[in-house]
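Supplementary notes for students who missed Thursday's class. We covered one full example, reproduced here. Read the sequence, then the structure, then the short commentary at the end.
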Amino acid sequence: MESIQINFTAVLVAVVANFILGFLWYTPLFGKAWAREIGLDTSVKPTGAEMAKGMTIMVIGNFFMAYVLAHNIAAWSFVPGMEEMPIVSTVLNTTVFTWLGFYLPVDIGVVAWERKSWKLFAINTGYHFMMLLVAAIILTHM
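Structure (token representation):
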């Protein structure tokens, strides 16, 4: 039985890249709209301890996501014929099917059950899709 090999350097690069993406997505790109949609008072700045705690939790979450995604990509390499599939197909299949199966249902649930807006849904699910895409690109190219 073959074992799955995980490139931990690629996982760590994906974690850093997604940390940067999260900062850009929720600060200059969509920060004001996101804050408005969740009812966040932007005049109240979080303390240093609150920021450190939030960033630490985000990095841990990004690590779990990248590690599991790397494992998933590696597991699919055992399927006959996968070696002939272009790497772009691997990246897109990984991104789209992981997003459709695991992120999109949760994001839709937030609209359905927590009565959050479709605008917030678009911001968050767009980030989830891009985060998976960035991680899949890194994990398949390193």
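Commentary. The helical segments are 8-29, 31-38, 48-76, 87-114, 118-141. Residues 8-141 form one domain. If anything here is unclear, bring it to office hours.
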